[in-house]
Design brief:
- The complex is a heterodimer.
- The relative contact order of chain A is 0.13.
- By secondary structure, chain A is of the alpha+beta class.
- Chain A is about 20% helix and about 15% strand.
- In chain A, helix 4 (about 210-220) packs across helix 7 (about 260-265).
- By secondary structure, chain B is α+β, with helices and mostly antiparallel strands.
- Chain B folds into two domains: about 10-55 and about 155-230 and about 325-400, FAD/NAD(P)-binding domain (3-Layer(bba) Sandwich), CATH 3.50.50.60; about 95-150 and about 230-320, 2-Layer Sandwich (D-Amino Acid Oxidase, Chain A, domain 2).
- Helices cover about 25% and strands about 30% of the residues of chain B.
- Chain B is built from nine helices and 21 strands.
- Chain B has helices at about 20-35, 70-85, 100-115, 125-135, 155-165, 215-225, 285-300, 340-345, 360-375; strands spanning about 15-20, 35-40, 55-60, 90, 95-100, 125, 145, 150, 170-175, 175-185, 185-195, 200-205, 210, 230-240, 250, 260-265, 265-270, 275, 310-320, 335-340, 350-355.
- In chain B, helix 1 runs parallel beside helix 5 and helix 1 (about 20-35) packs across helix 9.
- Chain B is globular and about 65 Å long.
- The chains are: A alpha+beta, B alpha+beta.
- The complex binds flavin-adenine dinucleotide, iron/sulfur cluster and FE2/S2 (inorganic) cluster.
- The site of FE2/S2 (inorganic) cluster (FES) has 12 residues of chain A, from loops.
């Protein structure tokens, strides 16, 4: 299928057209469209700049040269391509989503509009600096609080007794630290910006759904860390600052339901 | 948890790393700990090449024991090291190798011997016990071995190393592509880099350069007239919704396609495939690969057949060595090499790290940093085995402009 993407570039936009398989995601389309000329296996129509530049149409191979970017160079964050690293968030047709988990065919036909996530500072195009998210997250983690000061001894290489009853299975928290919940939160982002690059001022200080969700999981899973978690929740920018819009739970790509976790925190 | 920045005895020498994948990340941390001034250039977001897309298997080395004992030993040692250094980015639930037919069962002897030789404690358990441990396993299991495999977060392990390097003052520059080198009298003096955020170019001088561009390594080498024997091979992966196992489940047979099932959070991922490609750019799985992977997943865990597909993607393997077999390079070694271009190509001041696994990122960095020390005539020991990096979250903390 032919996908058409309209990508924010500051106040301006870049239009891309690309041929992608029917099952492809927005991220796949973006990656194919911005790969170096003549280097992708998928057939494609290449990128086209909006302001009538047309196809520059260089068909050289990209091997051995560093510069033959496709007609346009678009900056976007991506890494795992399967909803696990949390870096590919963007506004897809105005709604926070992971581009790697948004199949083109699930979107209305026509141009797909891509804008950077509004809670963070834009580096360029769709790429943002996710500092505000990571600044909000607490230092504890229930999986195995790391002993950073003094390393544990070298573990025994022998396989462990592994029946769940003998040794609880380890599992990462579901939250992939993608920040979509922050981007969706009406307290943190009172209005969706028309173009990118708008300065969005929080309505009030709020640590945000990702951090509070983490605090709740910490209380449930790791009793020893729960004092810090309770303090985080009870601070003025904790649960009290939440408006109960539940936009976070709707935006979360991993079913973490931070809105519900915040409600549970209010009661604990 | 407060990360105490380790004390470092600074050297007046600058090393530039090209490539911000797992290898470049671990190298930045290693060199910074040894006291070098480090600059790292990554053309996109960190870990946007192969590293972020890998399967997530923390290899005990059992997979490679019979064909590639060297990498098998390294994997075992690194599994133990990473479990100490970045425990919060690892799910350590072990692994199972299972035989689904007579031929695979017969391979068990060779497998067990090879593991023993490589120092990997593999232990045979009854098929019934294996299915008790992993109820989602195929009822066809004829033989099973428990191995010390695990899963790790493809982003968080290397991101912790990047965060550590940054805490030590390394200049980490994503969105910055190396587009050329300036050499004079047989020595690389500077790299030309393009800042993609401003589309501007600049010249960056350093005392030494390391090419850590993985599957892109050959084309980066070519920019400096170097011969870097890396072949990109596309590997596809298919994830379905639902966690069908907690352990890493592998087929008891020599490494091939579609023979590893890895759990990742709420997903189960089967991988992978292999085909040689001209360049590592813009790869996608083919329809044939996806069908094959679906069938392969269902052979290991029957519920895979009807589970809802979550995602499918493709990554470029940096295969080391030009001698690849016709089957698409499966027989090529998974081992790595640090290439000293002064002795290989008579170009001083530059090395390439090629091949390897994500599991072996730390040891690859150690060997590369050892070469940097030798080439620059300084004696600094590797410290990455004794120094835990900060949390991956530190990479972006405190960076609100
Ligand atoms: C399908 C598949 C599954 C795998 N599964 C596993 C697994 O389960 N466990 C495991 O241990 N290993 C696995 N591996 C292997 C592992 O992923 C790789 O060996 C490892 O990630 C390579 O890391 P790297 O840093 O060398 O390369 P990369 O991560 O590719 O890093 C190279 C970087 O260089 C950058 N770059 C390229 N050109 C330039 C330039 N001109 N200027 C600046 N930067 C540039 C790229 O953007 C890239 O980020 C798998 C590999 C594949 C393909
Ligand atoms: S709670 Fe959900 S939306 Fe928020 S950071 Fe975690 S995974 Fe992303
Ligand atoms: S690329 Fe990792 S979550 Fe989308």
């Amino acid at each position: 299928m032919i996908a058409r993407l309209s990508v924010a570039r500051g106040e301006d936009r870049v239009e891309l057209e690309v041929e992608a398989p029917a099952w492809a995601t927005v991220l796949d389309a973006l990656e194919i469209a911005t790969s170096k000329k003549g280097t992708t296996e998928a057939r494609r129509h290449g990128g086209r700049e909006k302001e009538g530049e047309g196809q520059k149409g260089k068909e050289e191979k990209g091997t051995g040269r560093g510069r033959e970017w496709n007609d346009v160079d678009v900056l976007y964050r991506h890494s795992c391509h399967h909803g696990s690293c949390g870096v590919c968030g963007a506004l897809v047709n105005g709604r926070p989503a992971l581009m790697c988990r948004t199949p083109l065919r699930e979107l209305p036909s026509g141009v797909v509009r891509l804008d950077p996530l509004p809670y963070a500072t834009v580096i360029a195009d769709l790429a943002v600096e996710p500092g505000p998210l990571f600044d909000s997250l607490p230092g504890f983690g229930y999986l195995r609080p790391p002993a950073r000061e003094e390393l544990p001894p070298v573990p025994d290489p022998a396989p462990l007794p592994l029946a769940p009853a003998e040794r609880p299975r380890e599992r990462f928290e579901d939250c992939i630290e993608c920040g979509l919940c922050l981007a969706a939160c009406p307290v943190l982002v009172p209005r969706m910006p028309e173009g990118s690059g708008d300065t969005v001022v929080a309505r009030r200080a709020f640590v945000g759904p990702a951090a509070l969700g983490m605090a709740r999981r910490e209380i449930v899973k790791n009793g020893s860390g729960s004092d810090a978690a309770l303090a985080l929740a009870a601070a003025p920018d904790g649960v009290a600052a939440c408006d109960r819009a539940f936009a976070c739970s709707r935006a979360c790509p991993r079913g973490v339901a931070p809105g519900r976790l915040i409600e549970e925190l209010r009661r604990s | 948890m407060v990360f105490e920045t380790p004390r470092v005895d600074s050297l007046p020498l600058r090393v530039a790393i090209i490539g911000g994948g797992g290898t470049g990340a671990a190298l930045a941390w290693d060199l910074a700990l040894r006291g070098f001034r480090v600059a790292l250039f990554e053309r996109g977001e960190f870990l946007s090449g192969t590293t972020g897309r890998h399967h997530g298997q923390l290899h005990s080395g059992a997979r490679y024991a019979s064909g590639d004992p060297e990498i098998a030993r390294e994997c075992m040692a690194e599994t133990l090291a990473l479990r100490r250094l970045v425990p919060d980015a690892i799910e350590y639930n072990g692994g199972l190798f299972v035989a689904l037919d007579g031929e695979e069962a017969a391979y068990g002897e060779r497998f067990a011997e090879a593991c023993a030789e490589a120092g990997i404690p593999a232990r045979e358990i009854a098929p019934a016990r294996a299915r008790e441990l992993e109820p989602g396993l195929s009822p066809r299991v004829e033989r099973a071995f428990l191995v010390p495999d695990g899963t790790f977060d493809a982003w968080r392990v290397p991101a912790a190393f990047l965060a550590g390097a940054r805490a030590l003052g390394a200049e980490l520059r994503p969105w910055t592509e190396v587009v050329g080198f300036d050499a004079s009298e047989g020595r690389v003096m500077a790299a030309r880099v393009r800042d993609r955020t401003r589309a501007s170019e600049e010249r960056v001088e350093a005392d030494y350069f390391v090419n850590a561009c993985g599957a892109w390594g050959a084309s980066i080498g070519a920019l400096a007239g170097l011969e870097v024997p890396v072949t990109p091979a596309a590997g596809s992966m298919l994830a379905v919704k639902g966690r069908l196992c907690d352990m890493v489940i592998s087929r008891l047979r020599p490494p091939g396609d579609g023979d590893i099932l890895v759990p990742q959070r709420g997903l189960s991922i089967i991988g992978s495939t292999q085909r040689l490609v001209e360049t590592p750019e813009g790869l996608l799985p083919t329809d044939g690969e996806m069908e094959f992977l679906r069938r392969s997943g269902a052979e290991l865990a029957p519920a895979f057949a009807d589970a809802e597909v979550d995602s499918a993607w493709c990554a470029a393997r940096p295969l080391f060595g030009a001698a690849l077999d016709e089957a698409g390079g499966r027989a090529a070694s998974r081992d790595f090499a640090v290439l000293d271009h002064e002795s290989r190509d008579r170009v001083a001041g530059v090395a390439s790290v090629v091949g390897g696994k994500a599991t072996t990122l730390r040891i690859m960095a150690e060997k590369a940093a050892d070469l940097v020390c030798r080439a620059l005539g300084v004696e600094r020991q590797c410290r990455t085995l004794e120094t835990a990096p900060p949390s991956w979250r530190q990479l972006y903390r405190g960076r609100v402009p």
